[in-house]
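User: Once you have settled down, look closely at the record that follows, taking as long as you need, and be ready to discuss the fold:
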Amino acid sequence: MKRLVKGFCGIAGAGSLLLAVGLCAGAQTVNFADIKPSPQQVEWQDLEFGVIVHFGTNTFLNREWGDGTADPKVFNPSQANPEQWLSAAKAAGARYVVLVAKHHDGFCLWPTKQTEYSVANSPWLGGKGDLVRMTSDAAHKLGLKFGVYESPWDRHDPRYKDPAAYDRYYLSELEELSSNYGNLNEFWLDGAGSEGHAYDFKKIIESLRTYQPNTLVFADTGLFEYGDARWVGNEVGNIPFENWNVIDRHGFLRWRPVEVDTPLRKLHWFWHPNDEASLKSVDELMTTYEESVGRGGQLMLGLAPDDRGLLPDADVARLKEFGEAIRARYSNNLALKHADTDANTTRALDGDADTFWSAPAGSHSSTLEVTFKEPVTFDRALTMEWLNDGQRIEKYRIEAWVSGGWKKVAEGQAIGHKKIDAFEAVTASRVRLEILSSTSEVHIREFQLFNTGIRH
């Protein structure tokens, strides 16, 4: 079945991975397997784990949702210290941070020249503070990538009732954020508050790209043409589906990797007093990790400084425990102990994600086998697909040589950036990754095995 292509050649699609659905005059049919990521998307997907920080007037008023009426004078942290926040995030393994520079209440965490509703009119640091600057500086000092969220919804500014006037206001603030704080790794964009108000998303992206051509734009899937990455569709911390990086909207195909956002404290993005019971356990966070990063997505964990401007001690401790748990579970890669093999196979077993094993050119099925001198016991497999030329694996199976025959321990369809498969522990001296179906020859960056001791 074919249908008319919308837009320009090279972007068309339908619901199955291989079904070609669009033709441009004199051009080749395009399908999901033809779409490749940009270099910026490849780099961003390798970051895997970031944090988003919510801090503002809501913090001082015990609110999740501000209505824009809070007096700027309520914002007065006594010890605001972004370096403390980000040191704790780094201990957990995070590699990037997004600061909510303006939430829906309209209060700005930098001394914008566009409104008086900002830190410049708060008592904090005598009105001379700039939390965006402090957070950006802390991120760069600690080696983390930095980004911002500027909510398009503004429940304070009267210009919001006039779309044209408000767009000018929003774009002027965006220009400040995108030209004064160094490279932005990620810019969050959504349609919050869009009921009865049409945002000029096209102009927003044009303005952002003027100053930040390499920034990854995170957006709801509904804002398909404006984003570089997409929302998973929930805030509980998991990818509940086979994760393909290429998605189709209205006959257009785009590479749109998924980001999973969830707060460190259950259902709370902002800090609240007497809220210790909401802090997620290490086990809950590990499940989140394996169902986000372990399903080929990005984990964006929400952090909430308290009214001092510090992450609570319990949050700092939990982030440290989370990082230690990740490293304990996924640091002893048994595949590194493999028996001697050819150079091609070694590239998937060397613990170096910059090298990769390649299947025979033009193949649509292939096998990567690991042999050990002595049997090993394992209950997790971690597989990474090299995605620079697109996502190619459509079906795979992991098998172990047990009692003289191959035993299936895991199977699936998508692998993508990273796939963690968990199963009952098995002991074997031979293990293989079978690519049962692929659009072309596949490339495997890493095939790792772990023994976590966790029963399933």
About this structure: The longest strand covers residues 366-385. The CA atoms of residues 101 and 109 lie 5 Å apart. Residues 1-27 have pLDDT under 50 and may be disordered. The domain at 39-330 is CATH 3.20.20.80 (TIM Barrel).
